[in-house]
Amino acid sequence: MAERYPFVKKGRKDPVRYAPNSRESVRKQSVHQLMAAGILEANSDAPDRAVNSGDYSYRPTEIALTALRTFGTPDWSSAQATFMQELGSLRHRWAAERERHRVPVRLPDESKVTLSAGKHSALIAAVVEDFAAYYTPGAKVVYLGDTGAKWVVNEDAYLADLGIKVDPHGKMPDVLLHDIERDWLVCVEAYQSVGPVDAKRVGELRTLLAGCRAGLVFVTAFPDRATFRAASADIAWETEVWIRDAPTHLIHFNGERFLGPYETSPGT
């Protein structure tokens, strides 16, 4: 980003170059404000594009361009007023468009929530609706994450009763299911391109969920076999794999039991 778009600070002749991994900081500290002001819009070419997609894009809104073209002319004041008048309807259209593309999820108690658009959200929905029905019937969804809003479901009091104090800055799994009958806390990561449950991730989750009185079970969910094959070498031993295309089967990565908690980390 820096090589293509050097920025020059006032009073300086040399450009300030931003590091390649500073995209998120620029987005939060600059792009969000421009979107809130109605100057930029996201994904006008594909409103259903996932928030974490590498193709996520922004462009100036037509009403902002129309107004800005009059800057420095006698029409500027009138154009500003028109911009503010049209901004309300534009925001309403954006909100309706985002809502239309959200992914609905039916929880085990028949209540419903929605997730931001994208394949990752569709896989999370399948975990809650299909995996849970087959392997943890009657389980309670105590946490459900989203790329757009981290805490879609967050049962703080319930988690505290399980002995878990959630770190708001911790990297939570995509889904936490409490199998009440067996007293298992099933931690599921929905894999699209990064983030299978490898040995490092198991260690992170054990630290994050330290104090949990329920047995911890770790599952990586994949959309299909091809995606699983690409990441299979990284899967931790003594964890499970569930593939959306074959929802009635699990792949068990060794260990003394099939779909159950272990007291120690994989390989110990």
The strands making up the biggest β-sheet line up spatially as: 6-5-7-8-9-10-11
Shape: elongated
Oligomeric state of the chains? single chain
CATH hierarchy: architecture of the largest domain:
3-Layer(aba) Sandwich
Number of strands: 11
Rounded to an integer, what's the Rg over CA atoms?
23 Å
Alpha-beta content class: alpha+beta
Question: Which superfamily, in CATH terms, is the homologous superfamily of the largest domain?
Answer: BsuBI/PstI restriction endonuclease, C-terminal domain
β-sheet strand percentage? 15-25%
Order of helices and strands: HEEHHEEHEEHEEHEHEE
The percentage helix is 25-40%
Q: What is the CATH first-level class name of the largest domain?
A: Alpha Beta
Average pLDDT rating: 82
Q: In total, how many domains does the architecture comprise?
A: 2
Distance between the termini: 43 Å
Which fold does the CATH topology of the largest domain refer to? Answer: Trna Endonuclease, Chain: A, domain 1
Q: What about the largest sheet? A: 7 strands, mixed
Poorly predicted runs: 1-9
